């Protein structure tokens, strides 16, 4: 039987928060728990396909450690969560409108669709919501 | 007799060993086993917790020199 769904709002481009969101999403999804991630605000830029991987993550002291120790890449963790579990990812329609981007600007294979916050929040009433 | 797939995930950080285990479980037959070597300190607790949650079977956890050997049997 599936557990309570997990909903994650990712607003920050800070490496440590993106990494935590990716760990939560991937581990939750492979643990028989439906997971949905909603990406908005500065987090949008993390998923820009034009950004070289070496410039993708910026953060503080722990970010430096994650890079130095070669911790699992956050985008790869999201991919694994989708491949091995029930993980859906949505990009905020407002964030796309404001940035002037469309879905094609985002890294391939991660996002299922665009979504408004109202719909995401409505869905999240049935689960646990985490904001990073 | 059950076949055992070995994964050397030493040096990988959380949740790398768990993800490698799950990927391996997808590829083997029910009744077969995966043995993961992990130097990630959380794996010896995290992997049994995951196994119990999703309904596979723990065969054992052995603490070796600087890493843990964790064996899981696929049940479904």
What secondary-structure arrangement, pairings included, does this model have?
The complex is a heterodimer of chains A (132) and B (76).
Chain A: E1 6-10, H1 15-29, E2 35-39, H2 43-46, H3 61-68, H4 74-84, E3 87-92, H5 93-99, E4 113-115, H6 117-124, E5 128-131
Parallel strand pairs in A: 1-2, 1-5, 2-3, 3-4
Helix pairs in contact in A: 1-4
Chain B: E1 4-8, H1 16-27, E2 33-38, H2 43-54, E3 57-63, E4 68-73
Parallel strand pairs in B: 1-2
Antiparallel strand pairs in B: 2-4, 3-4
Can you tell me about this structure?
The complex is a heterodimer of chains A (132) and B (76). By secondary structure, chain A is of the alpha/beta class. Helix content of chain A is 40%, strand content 17%. Chain A has a 5-stranded parallel β-sheet. Chain A is globular. By secondary structure, chain B is of the alpha+beta class. In chain B, 33% of the residues are buried. The model of chain B has no long low-confidence stretch (mean pLDDT 95). The chains are: A alpha/beta (132), B alpha+beta (76). The interface between A and B is medium-sized, with 14 and 13 residues.
